[in-house]
Amino acid sequence: MEILIFGHPALRERAKPVENINGKLKETIDKMAETMYKAKGIGLAANQVGILKRFFIMDVSQREGKNKLEVYINPEIVSAEGEMLYEEGCLSIPGYFAPVKRYAKIYVKAYDINETLIEKELEGISAIVFQHEYDHLDGILFIDRLSHIKRQLFKKWWRKHYKK
């Protein structure tokens, strides 16, 4: 499984809801997890591997050398509060990091791979990663949340580091 890189049109598409949670989806999620762990990422949205469906995986415990994969299918952010700034990166924009303002606490709903409804509150890094991956499902990249000037600087940086 290959992670799509900035410029690929699938990264700008809005994903469609998952209609069937089945063995094929489980197999896809397993492959995505393998890809994410190999790339040393802490989140991966379906769009990033060319699948335009509303699901993503994340594992913030990987930073501590543990594995606790979380799967969010057809996720929703029900409510949000507070604000925090966090230095984000993205597997689809390798090597680039920038501070992004996100909600500090979010209440979310989604389904897991067993079709169980998940309702929970996330804060800190878990809230940041959830919002980052959730954005992917709407075709939004973290660089879209930067100021105009910072986006211009990113474009220069990208041209310099990723000439085609």
UniProtKB/TrEMBL annotation:
SUPFAM superfamilies: Peptide deformylase. Its cofactor is Fe(2+). It comes from the Bacteria. The active site is at E133. It is an enzyme of class 3 (hydrolase). Its EC number is 3.5.1.88. Fe cation binds at C90, H132, H136. GO terms for molecular function: metal ion binding; peptide deformylase activity. Binds 1 Fe(2+) ion. Pfam families: Pep_deformylase. Keywords: Hydrolase, Iron, Metal-binding, Protein biosynthesis. GO terms for biological process: translation. It catalyses: N-terminal N-formyl-L-methionyl-[peptide] + H2O = N-terminal L-methionyl-[peptide] + formate. NCBIfam families: pept_deformyl, PRK00150.1-3. Belongs to the polypeptide deformylase family. Removes the formyl group from the N-terminal Met of newly synthesized proteins. Requires at least a dipeptide for an efficient rate of reaction. N-terminal L-methionine is a prerequisite for activity but the enzyme has broad specificity at other positions. PANTHER family: PEPTIDE DEFORMYLASE. HAMAP family: Pep_deformylase. This is Peptide deformylase.
